Amino acid sequence: MSESSNTNLEQAKQEGKYIRTIRSFVKREGRLTKGQAAAIEKCWPTMGLEHKNGMLDLSEVFGNNNDVVVEIGFGMGKSLVEMATNAPHLNFIGIEVHRPGVGACLMDADEAGITNLRIFEHDAVEVLADCIPNESLTTLQLFFPDPWHKKRHHKRRIVQTEFVEKLRAQLKMGGVFHMATDWENYAEHMLEVMNVAPGFKNQSETNDYVPRPDLRPLTKFEQRGHRLGHGVWDLMFERTE
């Protein structure tokens, strides 16, 4: 980075502007299937949310005052659609940057006929900062994020102190940040970050990990991992202040 770029960055920070310097994902432009493209065209007007529109009025978005669950990085969306189908008394917002996943999720949601799901196709950190009201979420879900397993890439992991401090504001008092990963090193990293994060309490009776709750569907990927002897770690931390 040049000296002038550094100066501009520091000046922007001092002015309180939101600057994203390290991203936790790599944008992969996968090919849309015809079904995914058709689902986006059909469902986006009713299920799509735009970051550019700013702060949401959640009761207006869903037409009710039900509790809201946000999932960051839902992949192809099968688990998210299953959760929304199984819990019609909850409202769900999924955030994903990869368009084929967005299309697949909308296709499944349309087929299931659910009305309690909305989708962002945007960077989750920016959505949380600009679109989700404070003290509005019952649960924030982060399931199987990119582990960035090489040590030199650990700074790209989304679960970092700054991220956790910011998301706490979006959770209601008693709201839960629920994480899951199949990388033990990342689970340890998550636990380390959360243990020192102010305003959170670990829901684990052993102060580390919790058994997979029924509300998180068991994916085919996870089932295969179990057969091969791979572990999966769930962490659930409750906002206390």
What is the fold's blueprint, element by element?
Blueprint: H1 3-14, H2 34-47, E1 48-49, H3 58-62, E2 68-72, H4 78-86, E3 91-95, H5 99-112, E4 117-120, H6 124-130, E5 137-143, H7 161-168, E6 171-181, H8 184-195, E7 200-202, H9 220-227, E8 233-239
Parallel strand pairs: 1-4, 2-3, 2-5, 3-4, 5-6
Antiparallel strand pairs: 6-8, 7-8
Helix pairs in contact: 2-5, 4-5
Binding site for substrate: 150, 182, 219-222
Protein name: tRNA (guanine-N(7)-)-methyltransferase
Binding site for S-adenosyl-L-methionine: 71, 96, 123, 146
Describe the model:
With about 240 residues, the chain is of the alpha/beta class. The protein has a single domain (about 30-235), classed as Vaccinia Virus protein VP39 (Rossmann fold), CATH 3.40.50.150. About 35% of the residues lie in helices and about 20% in strands. It is built from 9 helices and 8 strands. It has an 8-stranded mixed beta sheet with strand order 1-4-3-2-5-6-8-7, with helices on both faces. α2 (about 35-45) crosses α5 (about 100-110) and α4 runs parallel beside α5 (about 100-110). The longest helix is centred in the first third of the chain and has 14 residues, at about 35-45. It is globular. The chain starts with a helix and ends with a strand. The model is unreliable at about 1-10 and about 15-20 (pLDDT under 50).
